[in-house]
Amino acid sequence: MLSLGISGENRERTYIQLGSTYRCIGEYKKALELLKKGLNEFPCNNGIKIFYAMTLHNL
Q1: Using an 8 Å Cβ cutoff, are 55 and 31 in contact?
Q2: CATH class of the 2-58 domain in this structure
Q3: H-helix segments, 4-45
Q4: Where are the domains of the chain?
């Protein structure tokens, strides 16, 4: 979905939602990689920061 050109607020939410989903199903490395990309693109997004921290905790 992200590679298809989703943009703006929807793109930010997609990073959070997909990253959270990966984390919930135990795909921690995928979650970390995706959330790291999200942080690079949206460094002020606290939701991405929170799920990134939770994924680090899981790892």
Answers
A1: yes
A2: mainly alpha
A3: 8-24, 28-41
A4: 2-58
